Amino acid sequence: MALNGRNLLANMFTSSRSSLTCTYKCGNACFGECENTSDNPYFGDQFPRRTALRAGGLAVVAVGGSSALAACAAPDDNGSAAGGSSNKTSEVKGSDIELTSAEGMHFEAVDANTKDEVVIPKGYEQTVLIAWGDPVIEGAPEFDVNNQTAADAEKQFGFNNDFAGLIEHPDDKNRMIYMCSHEYTTEPMMFPNYDPENPTEEQVKIGWAGHGHTILEVSKVKGSGELKREFGPLNRRITATTPFTLVGPAKGTDLVKTSADPKGEKVLGTLNNCSGGVTPWNTMLSGEENFDQYFAGGDIKDEKAAESLKRFGIEEGPSDRKWEKYDDRFDVTKEPNEPNRFGWLVEINPLDPKSTPIKHTAVGRFKHEAGNIHITKDGTVVCYSGDDSRFEYVYKFVSSKKYKEGDLEHNMTILDHGTLYVAKMEGNSPEKEIDGSGVLPEDGAFDGSGEWVKLLTSDTENNKFESHVDGMSAEEVAVFTREAADKVGATKMDRPEDVEVHPETEKVYIALTNNKYRGATGENAKKNKEDAKEWAPVKENKNGLVMELEDDHAGEKFTWNLFLVCGDPREASTYFGGFDKEKVSPISCPDNLAFDNHGNLWISTDGNALDSNDGLYAVTTEGETRGELKCFLTVPAGAETCGPIVDDDRVMVNVQHPGEADDATFENATSHWPDGGKSTPRPAVVVVWKKDGKIGTE
Ligand code: FEO
Ligand code: CA
Ligand code: CA
Questions:
Q1: In whole angstroms, how far apart are CA 478 and each of 207, 307, 418, 532, 569?
Q2: Do you know which SUPFAM superfamilies this protein is assigned to (predicted)?
Q3: How far is the CA of 212 from the centre of ligand 2 (A)?
C-alpha cells in the first residue's frame, strides 16, 4: 500500500536514514525549515578573544606505513568492504614503531556491510534478549502481529527501543534489571493494511502502548555474559498514558494547565523517549525528544505559545499519526498547553513498580536527547544534556543539593534544586583557517574555550525560582528554554546527542551527529546562514563529530577540542584523535555514547552516510593509541544502533527500526530480522558476549 503520510518526502537527507524513519521518528525534523532561526551574536563579538588551553592529548601518533590495511574498510559501491581484510592482530603496526591496542580493544574489527543481521567479531556469541511484542508482564500473550490489541500491548515489550540501562537486582544475585525507552512507533510497518489517513482507534492505542519504557528482570547465564528475560515483580511498562508528576519551576503554572489537569501537576505519559542515563542512585533518566510530531497544529491566540510551537517545529494541520482523532489533548487548538508538558527529562525508579515517574522541569524543556550524571568530589550533581536538532544547544544542570549515598528519596529531588546553564564556545584558530573542508587549522586542532551561561536557578523545596534571562520569568525559562538560550547567545551546534563523562579522566564527550545545513550551498543555503566554525568545521556535515571537553564540572569555564571528525578515514576531512587514519574503521553519525571499564569510549551510530549499516564502535581516549577506533558490531539493514551497554561480561545494543526503508510497509518488509524467513522485522535487544573471556580481551 502506498504511504501517503503528511511528510513522506523523498529522502533529501544525505545520511542513510529513510524517509519513513524521518517521518515517524522525528517528524521530519531533518527536512523542514530550521527550528532555530535566532540571530545569536557570535561569542567573539561579545567577549574578548583569549588564548584557550589546548585540551589534552592531541599528540599525533606517527605510525605511517603504507602496507597496513584499514581495520574496517569503507564499502565500495556495492556495499561490500574495500581495502582489504580486517586488522587481525591486537597490535597496531607501522613501519617505524609498534603500538599495542589499549586494554579492552582487543577484538577483530567488523567490516562495513549491508547484511540483514547483527554482525559481531569472531569469537563472540549473541542472542536476542527481547523483541517488540514479547510479554513483559506475566500473563501477557506471546506476540501475534496479526492479532494485536492495545490491552496486550500495554503488557508487552514496546516498539523502537532506544536507551538501555542495566543494574544489579536488589535482592537476587542471579538476576539483573534491564531498562529501556521506546522512542516511537512506525505504524505502516506495525499493522497490516495500515491507512495513515484513517488509523483505527485500536491502532492508535497500540501506538500509545508502544511508546514509553520497559523495566525487565533478567537472569544471568552461568559462565557467560548471556542474559535471559524473566517475569518478576519489578517488570513494568510505562506508556504514553502512564501518569507522571511535574516537579520544579513549571509545575502548577498557567503554562502547563490543561482542561484535564487544571492544576498543572500531572501529565499523562511520556513521548519520544530517546536516550537517557542510569543515575548513581540507580534510577533511569530519559529524554523526551521529538515530541512536537504528536500534535496537530492550529491557530493559537497566545503569542508566546505560538512562538514556542514554531520554535519546536509544530506545524499547522494534522499530525502524522492522527492521535488527535481519539484524544483532544493532541490537538493544540483545543489544548494549547499540552505540548508544554513534553520535552522534559524524566526520572523513573525501576525498583518500585508502583512509583509515579517524575518530569524534572528545572532541567529545562527542549528536545532532550538524554541526561547523564557526573558527581563532583563534594557531592554536587552535574547533569549534561543535548538538544538534538540542527543548530541547537548543549546544556548542563549543576545541583545545589548534594548526593547522599543510599538516600533515594533525597537523590530523586536533586534535579529540582540547582542552576541550568547553556554552553557558549569559541575557537582559537583564525577564522580564515576554518574553511569548511574539515582540514585541521595550522595549530593542529579544532579547539578552543567556552563558558556556561546561567539560565535558571531552582529551589523547589522553598518554591523559589530565579530567571537569569532578561525579559523572561523563571517558568518561561523552564518551559521555553530554547528561546532563553537564544537570548543569551548560546552556541549553535551540529545536533547534540549523547553527552558522557569519562569515569577516570572526567573529560566530557559530546556526540554531534550531523548537520546537513551547516554552511550549506544551493537549495539548502537559505535554510540557515550558519557557516562552518571551529567547533563545527565541516560544511554540510554529514558524518558528525565527537567533541571532548575539559570542564570545571560545577563551574562555568571549559576548554574543548574535536576528538573525532567522523567519516571515511580516506577523506582529508576526517580526524581520529591524531591516530593513523589507515588503521581505523569508517564511522558516520555518532549518537549514543558509553564507557567500558577500561575507559574506552563506545559510540553507536544512527544514519550511516557511508553506504554501510549502522554499528557500534570502540575508541581509545587516552595514551599512545588515542583515537584508535574499531567497529565492534553492525546492525541489520535500515536499523539504528542504540543503547549501548558495555561491561566486562557483555555488550548490549538496542536494535531500533530494523528494515525501516523509504518504501517499507508491513506488506513490503525490507528486513526479516530477528525472526528470519518472511517475518515482520521487530526492534529488539541484543546481548553479545565472548565465548572464552572478557569483552575486548585476547
Ligand atoms: Fe532520538 Fe537524537 O536521536
Ligand atoms: Ca585550533
Ligand atoms: Ca539518539
A1: 29, 15, 13, 30, 42
A2: NHL repeat (SSF101898)
A3: 42
